[in-house]
Amino acid sequence: MSAEFAMAGPAERSDSRSRLVIHTEPNPDRIPELMVLSERDRADLRILARIFPFRVSQYVIDELIDWSAAPDDPMYRLVFPCRESIGHDAFERVARAISTGAPASELRELLRSVRSELNPHPADQLSLNRPIFEGEQISGLQHKYPETVLFFPSDGQSCHSYCTFCFRWAQFVREDDWRMAMNDRERLTRYLAFHSEVSDLLITGGDAFTLKARRLRFFLEPIVELPSLEHVTNIRFGTKALSFWPHRFVDDGDSEELLQMIAWLVARGKHVSIMAHFNHWMELETPVVALAIARLQKAGAVVRTQGPILRAINDDAATWARLWKRQTELGLVPYYMFVARNTGAVKHFAVALDRAWHIFAEAARQVSGIARTVRGPSMSDSAGKIEILGVDKVAGQKVFVMRMLQARDPKLAYQPFFAVHDDRATWIDTLKPAFAEAFPFDEARQGKPESACEISTR
User: Fold this and answer.
1) N or C: which end of the chain has fewer CB atoms below 10 A?
2) How far is CA 425 from CA 96, 316, 434, in A?
3) Closest to 160 measured CA to CA, from 288, 251, 48, 58
4) Burial class (CB in 10 A: 0-12, 13-18, 19+), 27
């Protein structure tokens, strides 16, 4: 992409690479770059793409992956699954069913069984976070923290590419009872009007920006127009589009309409926050992503960044320091380093908590104060977001020092606590409390009705 385009407007762009091209299977006939892989790796990909959801944009293939380094290139690992993503037995069961021509119904049952073993909905998000309202549970909302509601519009439950570690992978497989989605604007409006404690609406999925601008505006108009929703002051959009399809904000079919919608929200007094997902500094190196960011900022949006620490993709301090430095150069706000959630291919991508904290601290020491807005490493547990503050010795015992950044029970937020240190632990579930019988959030994990937002409109 030329330097001239980085300063040009969308009308000057005619390169065919500005057209969105999506691949939904790792077919070397359609993705010739895959021919650099061994025959076994290509065969493995075909099987893995039946187990995990697979989707990749041509933009990622052309602009982000260093094919001379594949399959070890971090951006390749980000979108193309590998054999280590799943246990040997599960892989062999699926491979055998495919090679022997198992009936479609039998293969579907097998795939559901294998996927069920991968904890498709971590942190009790189906059982605890979906609110009960007007006598029934709403499948397309989550209300875990009092001030924030997550909305899953049905036609936004996809992404321009799928990450191999994605904690929302169950949204993308054909298992309807696993999927969170709704299109009922009136119900969303009534729910938000009833909950005056809600200040933030997060449109998520999937990717909020797989929706057309007109569709997004349809859902948001009541929040802007109705006096009963004045308490909803912050509109967040969860997205990976800046990484996987930055043309969405530059010269996609309705880019101008999308930016106008954001400007309209800002002009009507709403704070618009783009919750952008980045995993590696390479995602921020193309001219088009810099232009996309500038156009979002000009429309009045604030772009905050987040992403998990992942083995063999970004598990070193230099990568994170360079990522945060580049983000601040572009005017982005580093927000979270997450711990990879305990779902899907986490056994392959998981980084020990001790190592994750040391990487975080070492990276933070290499950046200026304006990049130290980032928090983490943070685990999104069923009780809330748990941050590792450090590793220390207290009363002669080596411990993790932790706190809750967000909590299902708001009284627990920012309350420090200790966990017995464990070099191998990768999630809070494998840790034991130190100097106490239980963690302070254990009761909130039990799924009491009030924690599940079980309310009525009596």
Assistant:
1) C
2) 34, 18, 15
3) 58
4) middle
